[in-house]
Amino acid sequence: MIRFRTLAVLLVSVALSASGLRAQTHDRQSLWLGVGVGGSSTRLTCQVCAAERFTGLAGYAQLGTTLSAQTRVGLEANGWWKDDPDLSQLVGSFALAAFFYPQTRGGLFFKAGPSLLYYRARDEDDDEVHSRSYGVIFGLGYELPTGGRWVLSPGLTVHASSFGRLESDQDGIVSRDVNLSLIQLTIGVTSR
Fold it and tell me: Residue 4 in 3-state DSSP?
């Protein structure tokens, strides 16, 4: 498994190499899609939670449309998982995100939007707890042209939610006022 720090160094290196690619254009088409993988860190806080931050593998898929040379909107699905012998955890996020490019031909972008987050944990005895909550997604990234229809997209995304509740199939509501955060550092490809 790729360590979070190693991935961070790789993404920074790729972003710094972008200066040689600035002469290439960033033509954005109407329909676009993107996929990526990376490292992620998540934290669930509640009245009965340990409030630790866990790192694991993450991935995302995006599908959207281009509104203008500087604005795209799309649906984004994110996933994070971590399997340990005593605890298996999963976080999923579905967001409606707006992507804003400050420069018409530049690769830098910012994204934000509402999201729905889901958390599930299962221990070695198959006891399971889960949480659903509404939140927000925000982040930034950079599109590096590859010379074809696809661009390389390193990025940083933060998902945050509050006011969820942790539930168990056996015990009902375990805790109220659950907060969930997910920080992703990814590398992906996006169609123009």
Answer: helix
CA 136 to chain centre: 11
Q: What is the pLDDT of residues 120-172, one digit of tens each?
A: 988 888 788 888 899 999 999 999 998 888 999 999 999 999 888 888 877 78
Contact (Cβ atoms closer than 8 angstroms) between residue 55 and residue 80: no
Under DSSP, the state recorded for 25 is: -
The residue type found at 168 is S
What gap in Å lies between CA 148 and CA 151, rounded to an integer?
8
Whole-model pTM over 0.85: no
Q: DSSP character for 44?
A: E
Q: Of 90, 83, 71, which Cα lies nearest the Cα of 32?
A: 71
Angle at 161 between CA 184 and CA 183, to 5 degrees: 10
* C-beta of residue 60 within 8 angstroms of C-beta of residue 33: no
- Residue 121: C-alpha distances to residues 11, 88, 98, 153, 169 (Å): 29, 6, 30, 30, 12
Cβ-based burial of 140 (10 A; exposed 0-12, middle 13-18, buried ≥19):
middle
Bridge-based pairing state of the strands 128-142 and 144-145: unpaired
Would you say 138 and 149 are in contact if contact means Cβ atoms under 8 Å apart? no
